[in-house]
Amino acid sequence: MRVIFGSFSAITVLGGGVEVQMRALARELGRLGIEVELFDPWKRYGLKDYSYFHLFGSHVGTYHLGRSMHGLGIRLIVTPVFYSRHNPARVATAVGIAGKVRQRGGFWTEHMFCKELCDMAELVLPDTRDEMEMLARGFGVPASKMHELPNGVEERFANATPDLFVKEHGLKDFVLYVGHIGPARKNVFPMLKAVKALGLPTVLIGPVSETGYANQCMKLVAETPNIKVIPGLAPDSPVLESAYAACDTFVLPSLYETPGLAALEAGLAGAKVCITRYGGTREYFDEHATYLEPGSEESIVNSIKQARERKKDSALRDRIRANYLWPKAGEILASIYKTAAQT
Q1: CA 189 – CA 180 distance, rounded (Å)
Q2: What are the phi and psi torsion angles at 250 (to 5°)?
Q3: Cα–Cα distance between 71 and 67 in angstroms, integer?
Q4: CA dihedral 95, 97, 100, 101 (to 10 degrees)
Q5: Around Cβ 340, how many Cβ atoms within 10 Å?
Q6: In this predicted model, what pLDDT tens digit does every residue of 191-204 receive, in sequence order?
Q7: pTM score, two decimals?
C-alpha cells in the first residue's frame, strides 16, 4: 500500500505539531509495510499508484490541495486538527449562514473550509472525542466515516535527564513553556504575567514571531530577570529533552490545544503539566494534570500554584507510555487504512 501525506505549504517553514505528527506517522507506517510519501508540489504524480491522499489540517492553507486531489479521484482522508470553543450548535448555525452567503457572493469562512474538506473526505480522523463531537454536531460529519486517531510522542522522552540542560543553562525546577511565541492562540502573555507575579524562574523555548503580540511578550520578558527565552530547538534536540526533565512544571496556556504534543513530551519526561482545559486535553491527561481557564489570569496563577504544590510522580508518564506513543498511533492508522481498503 502507498499513501501520500499532504498539508499546508509553509509546514516546514513554521514547524510545529502537525509536521512532527506527519513525520512520526510516516515512519511508523513504513515499519508496518505501508509506504508513505510526503507530498512534493513539483512532482508529477501518477495517482493510480497510490491508495490514499491523507491531508493533515483542514483550513484555507490546505483547502485547494485537498480539493484538487479529491477532484482527481484519489481516495481522500482528512485529519482536520480542528477545534472551536463555540458551542457545536452555534458552529452549525454559523456554517449554515456562511454557506448561503457563499452561494450569493463568494464569501468564505475558516469553518467552511474545514466542513467542505470533511464532506469530500472518505474518512475523517479527529484526535479527540471532543473534536469528533464538534465535527459531527457542528459540520454534520457522519459518525460512520470518523475514526479517532490519537496523537503520539517519542518514547525517548521517558529516558530524559536534567543533566544536559542544567550544565548548559544552570537552571532546574523552573516553569517551562515550549511552543511558538507570538500567535495569540498560544496565549503566552497572561502566563508571563502570572509567573512574574509569582516570582517563579521560567524558561520559554520556541521561535519568536514578528508580531505585535510577540513584541508585547518580549517587552515583559525584558522587564523580568527570572524569565529566559531560548529562541528555538529542533524537535529531536537532546537539550529539549533535558529541559523537560529539568523543569518542575510545564505550562501550556493556549486558548485551546489539540491536545498539545509538547505537553505530552513533557509529561513523558516526568514534568508536572498545567494545561488549557479546551481542546480535549482532559482525554489525554485525565486527573494527572492541572487545568487552567485561558481567559482568566487568576485561573492561570492559581493553576500554576496548584501544579507547583503537587509532588512529582510517575502516573502521567505511565499513562502516556501506555496510550500515546507513536508506534501505537501508527498501528491504529494502519488498521484504519487496511479496513477501508476492503470496502
Answers
A1: 12
A2: -100, 130
A3: 6
A4: -100
A5: 16
A6: 999 999 999 999 99
A7: 0.90
